[in-house]
Amino acid sequence: MRNLSLLAALLLMMTGVCPLRALNWDFQTVRDAYFTAVARSVTVGTDGRVHVVYSALPEFGNEAELDHAVRTPATSWVVTTLASIPSSNLYGSAAVKCDSFQHPYVIYRQPSGGVQFRRHTGTAWASAVNFAGSGGSSQTLAVAIDSANDLHLGYTVTGGTLRYAFWDRSASSISYRDEVHDFTYVFEQVSLLLHPTSERPRMTYSRNGHLTYAVRGSTVTSAWTSEIVRSNSVSANSIAGGSMAFKGTTAYASYYDPANQSVYLASDSGNPWARELVGSFDMESVSSISPATRLFFDSAERPYIVWRRSGGDLYVSSKRGSSWKTALIAHTSEADFGAAMHADRLYVAYATPDRTTVRLATAGVSPAAEFGGWAESVFTPTQLADPLVSGVEADPDLDGVANLLEFAFNMPPLNAGVQTMAPGTGTQGLPASTLEIGAGGAAVIRIEFLRRRATVNSGLTYQAEFSSSMTSGTWTPAGGTTTVTPINDDWERVVVLDAPPAGSQRRFVRVRVTQEL
């Protein structure tokens, strides 16, 4: 056996600033083997079950179908066909939401143009309920469910009328219906949300070149009042892709302005609304049955806008500090897609470029998984304001381990005492390195360390490197095997074996931790 000496070293390395890293997306096939498929909507219940609604034309068949697919992290997708539709209605509107019992409601356009919904009772799908009478032409729709599990719907009908309907779940038919706007204009890109405290419905919609915001009065039968979010006199219905979200109790809207090919974020901070430029993009022609943008806020109130670019690519734009950055999600050829955010995780449903497969892309955006969110959870406001205490290179407990490494290896930054993780069982601590007997009786260096899983998007990369001299330029990645074992949703255990070159008498190992800011 070669007599190798061993040194375990840690190297902290900072990279350049990148306000939005490329998120680590997980891709799942919801359903395939279709002739044509169009993703419509996605939602996630508080129980973690993911619901996707899409329309599809089977590979062998003349009639299209509206499908609901559901899965949990531990199960495969279960698909139910809710309605048969003519192939000409393949691009009809549809949406899915869950009530407080985690039962899905699917709202969709009928071939006749009216609107129906079906809900799951917990044991089976109930019969359809009509929202809009037959003969109407619902070009677009939006839905919300309140704390009493009553349904609110915004939809358009022939002639350019935007309507609102309300369904008390104890009633056998629609409880109330009225007109938000009744003009000879085309209403498109309807978004509907309930105020987070009063639950009064709000809508945004495109009307005659304007992005408009409407608010319902204090009761379900009160009148609607409206104001212009953004005007555009270039052409009718030119402000498009409106989507709404609340940050606290303030309404925000994302939209696309084709006059300058730009995406904007507007806030209801006065009249007129304040707006900021997200970016200038060559967007796809906006579908009249689906907004071109989807707006969300994470638990740290950071905005995320999912949108589709001309050429068939889905992107997400997000803001860090004062800068907006954009990253690719996936390629697609359909203008329609579904998007949702739940528990600081993005969910995007779309059809593949060949239109044969419905897929779901998911990515974690948790602020707590990033250094800044972690720092907020372990330091006081006074400590956070002092970079000598809470900064990435600071060592407030004077144990020789910088905060970034404490974060990387699940260690307490305010509790002195350097510790090495227990091999095989440890869930915190610095990497553990040992000498082992390898094949042929040769000595092999084994290093084990904790790593934040890529799916939580911590912004960290870990690299085990080896050297025979520790001089610059001699550090190389491991030439042996690497074994990764998940511990939980956030952490995994990594074991790396070295393959030292022949004749080595000394061998050094380090784990390099790199942070993207």
Structural features:
single chain; 517 residues; mainly beta; Immunoglobulin-like; Neuraminidase; 4-stranded mixed sheet; 4-stranded antiparallel sheet; 4 helices; 36 strands; 4% helix; elongated; disordered N terminus
Describe the 3D structure.
The protein has helices at 371-378, 381-384, 387-390, 403-408; strands at 5-14, 26-31, 34-44, 50-58, 63-71, 78-86, 94-98, 104-109, 115-119, 129-130, 141-145, 151-157, 161-167, 176-182, 187-194, 201-207, 210-216, 224-230, 240-247, 250-257, 262-267, 274-280, 293-297, 303-309, 313-320, 323-331, 338-341, 345-351, 358-364, 432-437, 443-452, 460-467, 476-477, 482-486, 491-497, 506-515. With 517 residues, it is mainly β. Among the domains are: 5-17 and 372-515, Immunoglobulin-like, CATH 2.60.40.10; 185-334, Neuraminidase. Strand 7 (94-98) and strand 8 (104-109) form a beta hairpin.
- The portion of residues assigned to helices is under 10%
Distance between the termini: 44 Å
Shape: elongated
Strand order of the largest sheet: 1-36-32-33
The CATH level-2 architecture of one domain is identified as: Sandwich
SS field, number of helical segments: 4
Structural class: mainly beta
**The CATH class of one domain:** Mainly Beta
